[in-house]
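Hello forum,

I keep getting stuck at the same step: I have a sequence, I want structure tokens, and every attempt I make locally crashes halfway through. Rather than fight my setup again tonight, could one of you with a working pipeline run this one for me? It's a single chain of 146 residues.
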Amino acid sequence: MKSEVIKKEPLFKNNGDPIIKAIQKTLNSRYNAKLDVDGLYKTKMKTALIKGLQTELNKQFKVGLDVDGKWGTKTKAAVRNVRKGTKGNITYIVQAMLYIKAYNPKGVDGHFGDGTESAVRAFQRANRLDVDGIVGKTTFAKLFGS
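Reply #2:
Ran it on my machine without issues. Output:
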């Protein structure tokens, strides 16, 4: 039997994805990311998300990270578990990265609810991680690492 190759076209080819545009605007306003608000995911956006995460870890937990936008051992060591019921900017950053990686959290709003938990579980399952719905060090590393 011959297998068929399916070419997936971008959903928002001409105007960009409106949710990604909203994420870009938020990263620009919260972290001065200087991203083009075009609704297209580019490497600079991942760097901005990691810078946002590092900024929030420094603000909330006083961990003293260099805000360089690079995922490394110090950033991995500094992350805290994010789980259902968590609210805030770190949750927003996790939701944004899940959405970008095609795991829709059913809202990029900073509130870790059922949709985010389902997206995390699907991401963990697809990446052969322990499926617990909690974004811990291993899930963070898979989500933000290279």
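The chain has one domain: 18-144. If your local run keeps crashing, start a new thread with the error log.
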